[in-house]
Amino acid sequence: MKLELRGITKRFGALTANDRIDLVVEPGEIHCLLGENGAGKSTLMNVLYGLYQADEGEILLDDAVQRFSGPGDAMRAGIGMVHQHFMLVPVFTVAENVMLGHESTRLGGRLDLAAARARVTEISDRFGFDVDPDARIEDLPVGVQQRVEIIKALSRSAQVLVFDEPTAVLTPQETDELMAIMRQLKETGTAIVFITHKLREVREVADRITVIRLGKVVGEAEPTATNAELASLMVGREVELAVEKAPPRLGDDALVVEDLRVVDPNGITLVDGVSFTVRAGEVLAIAGVQGNGQTELTEAIFGLQTGVSGRIALDGKPLTGRSVRQVLDAGAGFVPEDRQHDGLVPEFTIAENLMLDRADGGPFVRFGALRLDDLHAFAAEKLKEFDVRAQGIHTAVGRLSGGNQQKVVLARELSRELRLFVAAQPTRGLDVGAIEFVYDRVLATRDAGIPVIVISTELDEVYALADRIAVMYRGRIVGIVPADTPRDVLGLMMAGEAPAAVAA
């Protein structure tokens, strides 16, 4: 089935998320929609899937204009969508999830689960998915859950399949398996739209590439295009993608974590006996699929978790059991993974956000009074130094782009006397230009002799910044390995395997 979008425009108030977008996807083609987060890719696909109604434009399937009032209409027309965040019921079986919303019944109105099981088995066998129709979703690895999403779409005779950032929660091996599945689907004549911002994956699997920037199509490219060419299309300027860093100048052990455990109020262990050391002047990257205890680990270091046991020490001084204020006063800087909820107050100005962790004393508060002239001078200096694109220091942070918001967080955290710097998902949602800037600042901090921890689910980022790599799986550190460890080895570790040759 041929898919064509003509002049699709979607507005949210004054924001034009999609601006007269044209797109054609042929049967048996993998068409990549490339662009940074916020470019309008997912909005466009949500229009296609009936979740949003376009303000202007048309959707055509095999040259026939379609009218979708909801996802049900899109599915009946032959469109399937595999979402970044899976739409599965964890306590249901695979077969129950596949039939959900499209239940077939037998005499007496009983659900025909046997037919659903048979359908799952048939599709699974055809594509080599190896999925048990009676397995509960909550018991399946993330990669298998994604296969269930694909089976759901194929069970409804989808001839156009949309994959929305499908590799965000996958290990490298699971990503490779997904690419093989996409090629199989392509061979059956399925038209595939692959939404991503990862250049390596685009060049590996796409037949054609359409690049979207700020809601508009800004160009098309062939898979033979270089990463630099694709990045330039995405951000509108040349970008230096290669990260050059000198060998680390290592100092003494600075941060020591021993047998750290975090137990939630329900008694569930989220961090399970984690131990590691970070030396002055090095970057320890903590890799792993999201949800394996990385968030709770960083929150424990900064006093944001209860139920913490074990030892955390910075320069020989204990941090375990200290308040957030005390940890910050000990010289720790923190870039949280969710900058909007945990790193900034969106309604506050840039200047106000830059003093959030210094509101109880110098240099901006003296004898209980705010020294506005000093704050404004400092904010203006940091606006320039960190290249924050804003009308001025009195602009509300919530009005800035994601990249500029992240620069405000970095400016605040890196402008203090630091003994430790921790950055969680430091470039999530940023364009490649902003990523370049963040990497430079992280490495400059390391080169100043400060111990750095980077928590990231992006392996390219881990390799770019790390001097050593720790991999977390289900609350434990599987191993700590050198920064040149092969990608396939890290992938095995991210799935819980710790080969003796690489285990710490």
UniProtKB/TrEMBL annotation:
GO MF assignments: ATP binding
Alphabetically ordered keywords of this record = ATP-binding, Nucleotide-binding
Presence of the UniProt keyword S-adenosyl-L-methionine in the record: no
Q: Which Pfam families match?
A: ABC_tran (PF00005)
Alphabetized SMART domains for the sequence: AAA (SM00382)
Q: Describe the location of the ABC transporter domain by residue ranges.
A: 3-239, 255-499
Task: Report if keyword Nucleotide-binding is assigned.
Answer: yes
Q: Which domain of life is it from?
A: Bacteria
Known InterPro entries for this protein?
A: AAA+_ATPase (IPR003593), ABC_carbohydrate_import_ATPase (IPR050107), ABC_transporter-like_ATP-bd (IPR003439), ABC_transporter-like_CS (IPR017871), P-loop_NTPase (IPR027417)
* Name assigned to this protein: ABC transporter ATP-binding protein
This protein's species is Amnibacterium soli
